Amino acid sequence: AAILFPTLGTLPIPVKIDTGAYGSVLHCEKIHFAKDDKGNKALVATLLNHPTSPEFHHEVRFDKYEEVEVFSSTGHSEKRYRVSLPVELMGLSFVTDFTLTDRSHAVFPVLLGRRSIKKRFIVDVSKKGYSYKTLMSLTSNHKHWVTADQLKEEL
To answer: What is the DSSP string of 81-106?
Structure first.
């Protein structure tokens, strides 16, 4: 699947939908802080400069952020910054939270966890590599919403 970040003006970025992860993660490098004219501190980060998409890199300023502790499945904890960004996935636009970390070692620069997909999408874990175009081609003959069972029959 691919995700769009409209405020960053990027083309689709590869995303991993991870039902085993609670939160979502965005590849980030070079975090630092800057103050505006009024002395307010903002987080500034270079986003999406990932080996799979090196042509996309944006220095983004976040006036609203928080420091959180994130736990891995192995029990390892790490402090990260969490920010909110508008996204578009499979034709649906919404704002979701991401923690920022170096994902240059990972295949996907963006990981979308349960918190971001809850009440928005149904995940069929037996399928992989589906995107909005695939879904639309399967449902193009329908003039109404289809159920998961109807889609399963067409697959």
So the answer is: EEEEEEEEETTEEEEEEEEEE--TTS
β-bridge partners, 62 = 43
Cβ distance 14 to 2 under 8 Å? yes
Separation in Å, CA 68 to CA 77, 78, 85, 97, 129 = 10, 8, 17, 12, 31
Both structure tokens of 50: 């990932």
The pair of structure tokens assigned to 81 is: 């910054």
Q: Are residues 53 and 109 in contact, defined by beta-carbon separation less than 8 angstroms? A: yes
Q: What is the pTM of this model?
A: 0.76
User: Which tokens in the block code for residue 155?
Assistant: 């697959």
List CB contacts of 94: < 8 A, sequence separation 6 or more: 86, 87, 120
The string of pLDDT tens digits covering residues 28-70 is 888 999 988 888 899 998 887 666 666 667 788 899 999 999 9
CA nearest to 114, candidates 8, 15, 6, 23: 23
